[in-house]
Structures are given as structure tokens and as C-alpha cells.
Design brief:
Length: 238
């Protein structure tokens, strides 16, 4: 099926892009009930997603075997046209697209084409924008290892011989641009949802400054401590 059949199909809806990063293990499995969602690659193994998108057709071939024994994982696939399957664009069972690695392809004019950068999450953001999302929420799209885990379930990695930290940094840099283009070209915010409490670390700090600058927000002045009394130590929860 042609992907332009999906353009505007979910206009005004919040669309959830679901990755397979470590935090996806911490998300309630029923959170996506009744919501429009796009799973990345093998996210269907963790959540029941409306759509699954991949630039690796062999993952959809693998899914066909999985669904035979577990129909609960049924999802509608959006698959790149490439070997080993070389699906036709008018395939009756799945949506088929080609890719453009140039940023001009993000929300570009070719109706059969989605952008591909470093990470399928950017392709999914492009797709969600074309679907007419009101807002895009990322779940489990961590672009980082956590506690020694790289995914939400046991699966391969593709680091191409590079340091994982460098690959994750590359994912983030490209996704920063996709987020910016979604906001500027389609007026759609891209927000990341996390089950982890608090916000900190160098990655969060640098992205906070980046997004604050993009949104034209000034740095806040140093706060004044107006505490009425002092404590010698912090309290432990009861």
C-alpha cells in the first residue's frame, strides 16, 4: 500500500513513537491502549502498537513467523522497499516506502519517500508528522545505554565497530534536527516521555540548553535562597 494513504489519517491525535531502549522495560504494557502508536523495529515484542516501521525488511519477515504463534502482537507494518523482500509499493498487506538521506526529504514532496538519517526514530517522526499528529511523544527512544542494557529485550546491536557512546551521540544529534524540523515545518512538538524520576546528567543538560535556545528562551537568573531555616542533613522518606 502507498504510504500517502496514511497522510492526515490521524490528524489532531497524539502519536506515540515507541522504541526498544532500556526504559521501555519500565513502561506499563497497557499504557498505549486506545492511543495511536508507531513501534520502531521490534517494539511490537514489548507493546501492542498500531503501526510498526522499519528500514530492515528482514525484521518484518521475522514478525510474520512470530505472529503465527502469538496473534496478540499483530500490527500494521510500514516497511522500506529494499532487499531481501523488495516489496512493491502497492503491496496489499503492508505500507511500503523508499528513503531519502537528505534533510530535504523530511516532510518532502515525494509521496512515497520518508527521511532516513541515523536511526529509524527520525523516519518515524517524519511519518507521524505526515499522519497529522497534534504532538509526538517518544517512549523508550533512549538513544543511550542504561545500567549496562542497550535494549528492552535481548536482541542484537548494530554499532558498526564504533564505541556505543559515539553511536548514541550520533543518534541524538540527528534526532535533535528532526525535532527542530517537525516544530518549524509542521508546528508539531516532539517530546520524550521517561519513567525515570528527575532530569540530569550531561546529556540532559546539553539538550536543555539546545532546546531552550531554539525556543528563544532566556537563561533564568540565579535563584535566591529564601529558606527560613537551615538543616544539617536531608530527611529520608518514611
Amino acid at each position: 500500500m502507498l504510504i500517502d494513504k496514511l497522510y492526515g489519517k490521524h490528524r489532531g491525535a497524539d502519536i506515540y513513537i515507541v522504541g526498544t531502549g532500556p526504559t521501555a522495560r519500565l513502561i506499563p504494557k497497557d499504557l498505549l491502549g486506545g492511543r495511536v502508536s508507531i513501534g520502531l523495529n521490534q517494539a511490537y515484542k514489548n507493546f501492542k502498537v498500531t503501526y510498526s516501521i522499519t528500514v530492515h525488511p528482514e525484521l518484518e519477515v521475522e514478525y510474520r513467523e512470530v505472529v503465527k504463534s502469538n496473534p496478540d502482537v499483530e500490527t500494521q507494518w510500514i516497511v522500506k522497499q529494499k532487499p531481501p523482500t523488495n516489496l512493491p509499493f502497492d503491496d496489499p498487506a503492508r505500507y511500503v516506502f523508499k528513503t531519502n538521506p537528505e534533510w530535504s526529504g523530511f516532510l518532502g514532496k515525494d509521496k512515497n519517500t520518508l527521511f532516513i538519517g541515523r536511526g529509524v526514530q527520525q523516519t518515524a517522526i517524519d511519518m507521524a508528522c505526515r499522519m497529522g499528529a497534534r504532538a509526538i511523544f517518544l517512549i523508550g527512544v533512549d538513544m543511550s545505554g542504561l545500567g549496562g542494557d542497550h535494549h528492552s529485550h535481548n536482541q542484537h546491536v548494530r554499532f558498526h565497530g564504533l564505541d556505543p557512546a559515539d553511536v548514541y551521540a550520533e543518534y541524538r544529534e540527528w534526532t535533535y534536527v528532526a525535532r527542530k524540523l517537525a516544530r518549524e515545518k509542521a508546528k508539531i512538538p516532539v517530546l520524550s516521555l521517561s519513567p525515570l524520576l528527575g532530569c540530569g546528567g550531561k546529556v540532559h543538560d546539553s539538550d536543555y540548553v539546545k532546546l531552550r535556545t531554539e525556543l528563544g528562551l532566556d537563561k533564568l537568573p540565579e535563584p535566591k535562597d529564601t529558606s527560613g531555616y537551615t538543616r544539617s542533613k536531608t530527611d529520608k522518606p518514611l
